[in-house]
Design goal:
Strand content: 5-15%
Largest sheet: 4 strands, parallel
CATH architecture of the largest domain: 3-Layer(aba) Sandwich
Number of strands: 8
CATH topology of the largest domain: Rossmann fold
Number of helices: 20
Distance between the termini: 64 Å
Strand order of the largest sheet: 2-1-3-4
Shape: globular
Number of domains: 3
Radius of gyration: 21 Å
Length: 385
């Protein structure tokens, strides 16, 4: 057993194959394939560690076929940290030189361009061409830094999230800075692929760019970026010296303090908890508080919500490794949203918004998908005076 897996040796053998994880795993819900289920993956990892299985391409594909959403860990009655073991298994694959080729290509792109795509690296502020006021940049003084993230800055179908958030910030008269070309990928894709040391370069660069603004707070509309900064940056870089917050937390605060004028929205909405905001970071209440501050809005919860929420299918680089499976998982989540009869499916992550909106279109689902910042923008058309 490699060092990456040795620390989890006791956890690996503690799985008693009860099957509780099968009922909550969104990937198993789609595939019904035992070898791709959490307990099946643990059995493969155990067989490898005990010398009963040789590493192969099939093994690496199975181990990486996971969104790392963590719902299996939440469900496990034996307390097995399944998501941590699967992450360690990826770390082990890197040491063996056996990470699936498509994930190796992703690593190369991020390490060379410092973004999920080379297009984003060439035009990091393409989404901000219509922003009415020029925001501060690196070296300028600002109260907070908006860390946009690769998805909202680089994918057209998610760029509306970034545009909506800066408009809300301006309406609330918040002085903010964008890092522009100095904003690199947060490091999550590399971390998920077992490249922690390589991700550290990205983290150090981003931290220095934020410090150049003198800001005391960094805010995120991407749950993966938020999770990485909140949980990994301090481990690698020590005390950050800045407050790390999610957009939903800032919105809840601005609305509670009446920093925004709010108009009624007579809608029935349901809310999707992003895995890296809710289950792994414990941020459940702030998005619901922000929604509750909008007059006329009625929130109806999906059958699987909060810690039990199903994944959108976009985490863990699953959308890169197996796009078809990722899309199917997103489709199942949209179906759960439709069952509530809500008019709007709201989430709080640019990646989730992109995945769920695409699934709604593919399935001709009569439900609009919005990020919470887009919804708040619609409810705050005028500044409070």
């Amino acid at each position: 057993m490699s060092n990456a897996l040795e620390v989890h040796a006791e956890d690996i053998v503690r799985c008693n194959r009860c099957g509780f994880c099968l009922a909550t795993c969104p990937l198993y819900d789609v595939r019904r394939d035992e070898a791709s289920s959490p307990r099946g993956q643990l059995r493969l990892i155990r067989a490898l560690s005990e010398g009963d299985l040789l590493p192969s391409g099939g093994y690496s594909q199975r181990v990486c076929c996971c969104s790392l959403c963590g719902v299996c860990t939440t469900t496990c009655p034996s307390g097995v940290a399944v998501d941590s073991i699967l992450q360690a298994a990826r770390d082990d694959l890197v040491k063996r030189g056996m990470l699936p080729a498509v994930l190796q290509e992703l690593n190369h792109t991020v390490q060379t361009s410092h973004h999920l795509s080379e297009d984003t690296a060439l035009a990091p502020l393409a989404w901000a061409q219509d922003v009415p006021q020029r925001p501060a940049g690196p070296g300028d003084r600002a109260e907070l830094v908006y860390f946009v993230g690769c998805v909202a800055s680089g994918f057209p179908e998610a760029q509306s999230v970034a545009r909506a958030f800066v408009e809300v910030l301006e309406r609330a008269e918040q002085r903010y800075a964008l890092l522009g070309g100095e904003e690199w990928c947060c490091g999550y894709p590399l971390l998920a692929n077992g490249q922690r040391s390589e991700a550290r370069e990205l983290m150090a660069h981003n931290m220095e760019a934020v410090r150049s603004t003198g800001a005391e707070k960094v805010v995120f509309t991407c749950a993966s970026c938020y999770h990485t900064w909140a949980h990994v940056y301090s481990q690698e870089l020590g005390d950050l010296g800045v407050e790390v917050t999610h957009a939903s937390q800032l919105l809840a605060e601005l609305l509670a303090n009446e920093k925004l004028g709010v108009q009624p929205l007579p809608w029935m909405v349901t809310y999707h908890d992003p895995c890296y905001l809710g289950r792994t970071s414990g941020v459940y209440d702030a998005p619901r508080q922000a929604l509750g501050a909008i007059p006329g809005l009625r929130l109806v919860e999906m059958a699987a919500n909060r810690a039990d929420a199903f994944c959108c299918g976009g985490g863990g680089n699953l959308d890169i490794l197996d796009p078809e499976l990722s899309r199917a998982v997103a489709g199942h989540r949209v179906a759960l949203a439709q069952a509530t009869e809500a008019q709007v499916l709201v989430t709080a992550c640019a990646r989730c918004r992109r995945a769920l909106a695409a699934a709604a279109r593919r399935n001709s689902a009569p439900i609009e998908v919005l990020d919470i910042v887009e919804l708040v923008k619609r409810a705050t058309s005028e500044r409070k005076t």
